[in-house]
Amino acid sequence: MRHRIVIVLLLTLSLHFASASALHAATDVGVVRAMLKNGLKVIIVQNSLAPVVNTQLNYLVGANEDPPGFPGTAHAQEHMLFRGSTGLSANQLSAIIAALGGEFNADTQQSVTQYFSTVPADNLNIALRIEAIRMRGVLDSRRLWKLERGAIEQEVAQDLSNSEYRFYTKLLSELFHDTPYGHDALGTQASFDKMTGKMLKKFHHDWYGPNNAILVIAGNIDPEKTLKMAREVFEWIPERPTPPRPAVHLKPLKAATINLETDLHYGLAVLAYRLPGYESPDYAAGQILGDVLESKRGNLYALVPQGKALSIDVGTNAFSRAAFGYVAAAFPKGNDGALLISTMKDIIEDYLKNGFPVELVEAVKRLEIANEEFQKNSVEGLASLWSQALAVEGRNSPDEDIEAIRKVTVADVNRVARTYLVNNTAITAVLQPRPSGEPVPSTNIRGKETFASRRTRRLSLPAWASKLASLPASPLSTVNPVVTVLPNGLRLIVQPENVSGTISIYGKIKNNPSLQIPKGQEGVNEVLNSLFSYGTTTMDRLAFQKALDDSAARESAGTSFSLQVLTEHFDRGVELLSDNLLHPALSEDAFKVVQQETGGALSGLLQSPSYLSNRALITALYPKNDPALRQATPDTVAMLALTDVTNYYRKIFRPDMTTVVVIGQVTPHQAEAVIKKYFGNWEATGPKPETELPPVPPNKPSSAAVPDRSRVQTSVTLAETVGITRSYTDYYPLQVGLHVLSGAFYATRLYQDLRERTGLVYSVEALLDAGESRSIFEVLYACDQKNVAKARAIIERNLREMQTKLVTPEELLQAKTLLLRQTPLSESSVEDIAEKLLYLSLEDLPLDEPVRAMKRYREITASQVRAAFTKWVRPRDVVQISLGLNPK
Dihedral angle at the C-alpha atoms of 742, 747, 749, 752, nearest 10 degrees? Predict the structure, then answer.
């Protein structure tokens, strides 16, 4: 479960739907919408990317409707919907979620609570029945709330350990004090301690009626048949009246300053203003205003190449009656954040005086319009697009936003800017980085267990989910790429997809800075990657960005690179990408700026808690002088010359070490022709470099604690080196075992023992990071400091049980099912498909490895799982690194 820091709000919703008896197709191709007899609004959107479907049930209730004195009520009820309903116990729900692939989640926003699922398309009926049962009623018993309260309070501690989240809550309070917008959805420990199951049950009854919900279904489905299914599943639930919603009375904004310490390795200077909300006719102009301010051709971003800021981030967050926008400039530790705020205010004043350039306004409008097309490249993204437009913004279709954007003029943007960007009432903030103390040996790392485990046994499922009781057939993959190796060695992988009028490129140059950076030049790779944003030998920074904007293209360059472009601009987009990769400017002036910025960032990084905890981990895992322990410092960066950067570039950037994945509305022949046109003359010199680190011996057990005064919760990593690599056959039974331990919420051992039954943690994950030459086994969790040893003891006991006892038949079936479901679910977005193909290629694995793996998983036995854990996992040899307020 998740709750979003980016909050959206809706107080009133006015949608125009057909009644259930008068279904009509939307103007959007492949979209059907209807209102059922009980008031439930249903939107069905066809997308053929993969044999999956995403459902999003949006209840029009959120933090705004929290009862006075009980912040977090909506968030608590979101959690409790996973604790069981009449006719569907929590154990049954967890088992069904696992059997469907584990892709169920939820979040609570300011005005909406959303329940998500991504499941195989032929299991849609089961996903809908889950939501119908939970809509009809919820248990919310005193006992169940007591169990869940510990977990949700750990979520509170997790977010309060994030300095950016703490800043966000203070910013909301200053912008919208004494209104429902003045607090987010998370809640507080004090509120949860007072809350009762009876209160939550009433909240569900008041707000979870079908007439207060919008159901969005997107995927590879027949829209009209799906609507018939939705009627059968939901229409029997009676509508319920909803209470009146709290009024929002905005008060005049007053200037305020927020000063905070942060455990980030850089500081943040922030400038925030109110903007028009969803209800305002100026909402679209406000969004375009934010985009113009963020443009890399704008005067705010110019602070980066001028050496005055490490980065610039501009964002907006909208509610119904109001929104806010912010400019956040990162600066090196020790610099003056207040001076940076003053500089940003001067830039804003200049824009207000002289107006925004027409061409910038038109450029960001093109990008916004193209972005809607890009969102079709993800089944979940498409469903979210409709949920956002209808449930959050109160539109009738996402097209309404696009039409509003098309109508925005530069005069509109200037008028909104002069109305809202008032520096005298702006909220300003400076987050100053604070160094961490050095890691110290930790004590009392092993605790005692306080209960006996209860392992998953045979569970009776409802009749409508009974087909999930057996192992599913191996799903067919829809990914069938065409592979070509160009004469220069570049490997091209093409996957045609026709879900949108776009083409995407994802690429990577195989490299390893730990092995390839000359001694004494540590940091040269970071400097090089930062220089790609400074233009090419034929176009300076602004001209190159303008060329991208003219095509509404999104591009990034470096050893990892990408391009997203509309189909009609594919040729031009690849031309620009190749120019950036093959002919970067690498100018002396840009080098001096980037060198200074990189050194400044490193000075803060090396003292930051996150760096020190990771450094303590790898130092404990790897032998002395291992290449992975090499570290850039301000001194090594200061010693660099531009020739070092250019020499490193020539050494690393080679076509025979490069893989390019092209995916989208393109044929293999078209893609090959364009890639050859712009990358065919790229040449490599000399032998291929070695990029694989040497194997490492087993580590010795140790522990260390890194203090971080900004945290209220201790984050713990348990890790060890393991002798297995990705090519070993034991990789597969280990994966099955890991899916017995975690990966499916309450249905897996670690979640049952650490969250469901004890409330010690909010989340826990066991994973194996297997490479070609070395691998790491890890368990990650976070909890109150007093419970660190207790949680570790439970984890160690679970690992020992994996070695001494056979997993139950039910656990084995569940783990295999989870792994079998991963193939179709992982193909539900263009980016996921491309990244998977890229990973397989770079790891020298067959591109059909997911299909081959399914065959292996089907045959794995409980004895093989136990044998693999016995051979490779050493529970007593883990390294423990704790990061927290007073870790021990």
Answer: 110
Q: How far apart are CA 523 and CA 538, in angstroms?
A: 27
| CA distance linking residue 262 with residue 212, whole number of Å | 40
**Integer Cα distance of 46 and 375 in angstroms:** 13
Q: In this structure, are strands 52-59 and 113-120 parallel, antiparallel, or unpaired?
A: antiparallel
C-beta separation of 18 from 33 below 8 A: yes
Q: Is the pLDDT of residue 446 over 70?
A: no
- Rounded Cα distance, 637 and 234, in Å: 62
Helical axes 731-741 vs 849-859, angle rounded to 10°: 70
SS (H, E, C) 672-739: HHHHHHHHCCCCCCCCCCCCCCCCCCCCCCEEEEEECCCCCCEEEEEEEEECCCCCCCCHHHHHHHHH
Per-residue pLDDT of 124-156, as tens digits, reads 999 999 999 999 999 999 999 999 999 999 999
Q: What is the pLDDT of residues 842-886, one digit of tens each?
A: 999 999 999 999 999 999 999 999 999 999 999 999 999 999 987
Token pair in block for residue 119: 């499941």
The whole-angstrom separation of Cα 675 and Cα 662 is 9
Do residues 285 and 413 touch, judged by C-beta distance below 8 A? yes
Structure tokens at 279: 């209800």
pLDDT exceeds cutoff 90 at 442:
no
* Cα–Cα distance measured from residue 361 to residue 106, given in angstroms and rounded to the nearest whole number: 36
Concatenated DSSP letters of 261-284: EESSSEEEEEEEEEEE-TTSTTHH
**Cβ-Cβ contacts under 8 Å for 173 (sequence gap 6 or more):** 182, 183
Tell me which residue of 851, 827, 820, 812 sits closest to 101, measured CA to CA.
Answer: 820
pLDDT digits (tens, 9 = 90+) for 306-356: 999 999 999 999 999 999 999 999 999 999 999 999 999 999 999 999 999
Burial of 247 (0-12, 13-18, 19+ CB in 10 A): exposed
User: Where is 25: in which H helix or E strand?
Assistant: strand 24-25
Return d(Cα 588, Cα 32) in angstroms, integer.
Answer: 57
Distance CA 145, CA 548 (A): 52
Residue with tokens 């610039």: 312
Q: How confident is the model at residue 102 (pLDDT cuts 50, 70, 90)?
A: confident
Residue 884: phi and psi, rounded to 5, are -170, -175
Residues 6+ apart with CB under 8 A from 510: 657, 658, 659, 691, 842
Is the CB of residue 820 less than 8 Å from the CB of residue 858? Answer: yes
Residue 839 sits at φ, ψ, to 5 deg, of: -60, -50
Helix segments in 378-491, DSSP class H: 379-387, 398-407, 410-420
**CA–CA separation, 853 vs 125, rounded Å?**
28
- CA dist list (Å): 140 to 75, 87, 370, 723: 13, 14, 44, 47
Q: Which two tokens stand for residue 549?
A: 């904007």
pLDDT band of residue 28 (cuts 50, 70, 90) is low
Residue pair 445/789 in contact (Cβ under 8 Å)? The answer is: yes
Cα distance between residue 88 and residue 127, in whole Å:
13
Instruction: Look up residue 84 and give its two tokens.
Output: 């069981």
pLDDT for 15 equals: 33
How far apart, in whole angstroms, are the C-alpha atoms of residue 59 and residue 510? 46
Q: What global pTM score does this model have?
A: 0.93
